[in-house]
Amino acid sequence: MDLLTTLVDKGLRRELPTRDEALAVLATSDDDLLDVVAAAGRVRRQWFGRRVKLNYLVNLKSGLCPEDCSYCSQRLGSKAEILKYTWLKPDEAAAAARAGVAGGAKRVCLVASGRGPTDRDVDRVSATIAAIKDQNEDVEVCACLGLLSGGQAERLRSAGADAYNHNLNTSEGTYGDITTTHTYADRVDTVQQAQAAGLSACSGLIAGMGESDADLVDVVFSLRALDPDSVPVNFLIPFEGTPLAKEWNLTPQRCLRILAMVRFVCPDVEVRLAGGREVHLRTMQPLALHLVNSIFLGDYLTSEGQAGQADLDMIADAGFEVEGAGTTTLPAHRADVAAAGCGAHAADAGSGCGSHDGGCGPCGGHGEEAVPAARTETAARTEIVARKETAEGARTDLVAVRRRGAGTDLPPNA
Questions:
Q1: Does residue 72 have an active-site annotation?
Q2: Are strands 321-322 and 163-165 parallel, antiparallel or unpaired?
Q3: Could you say which of 14, 98, 109, 360 is catalytic?
């Protein structure tokens, strides 16, 4: 396919595809799926070889969130029967993190429900970071605490945090459809605060909330403009008791096309396969390793993942290797900038659209003609019907609420 040849060439040069090219990836047929995976896999191997970075989540405070994010089991008004508990003590969180590191995790992600941290919350998290790093000096720590206010990012950086996660989740145009208690602009501002403080920015999306292909391309292009070091791709886990419980819009094939599109748009970024992979990719998870270079090990915030050993076996069986603690994840041109504590990644000469200092504009042209999206009105209707049929056969048995690990007396899955 000429489309895939063009996208591989651009990905190897770190050059941004056009919007039409990105849409065309999502419009490819199942017959072409392995070709799409192989093409995006070439870009993934160029920048990350066959390494897979393992990340481990610790839910510091679960449930009872005042925000109304429709996708979230911890939201205001959620009837999902999840674990609910207040802040873990630093030694409890460090014990949970230790299990993940022992399983091979290189990064520990500390997450707390809520609109954003108070200054006292930042103190709590700072003590937790210290407890984790006392036991595991080389481990990366990423904080995910919601919207940040003045000076909090700097305090987290001083406490030893390496990164901050705050996802855009969906396109700016549809953000108000999933959340009303804060805005898309609030999220962008928090990512930029983290970058300005010298934290490695981690920001991604959730697919499967009923969005269009255009929405997916919009949010991924917005992420490219923000230029985070890590882009987690979540697939909606439709929890019973949340507004999106009936949104079963994904097939394994669509998930792979979405991951390929993200890799083409963000070729040299840590693309992380995050929540929902077991639910939606199922037996096709190993193919995703050819597209992403990072996954979560074990369980998620409020749901259970597959066994940690199964994750490790999958990586080995697919011919990949777990990235070691002494290995730098990002390619040298990004790692050098990240080490300097700068949020903007300056472009090398001839690198296309690698520099997003101040935000990148349309920047898709570069002199080539756009490849048509090849999506007709009839094809779009056919896909909508197919998704409805998938929803009718929804595998709700695959959504398992977390009952072990942080906040319980049972050992974690790692």
A1: yes
A2: unpaired
A3: 109
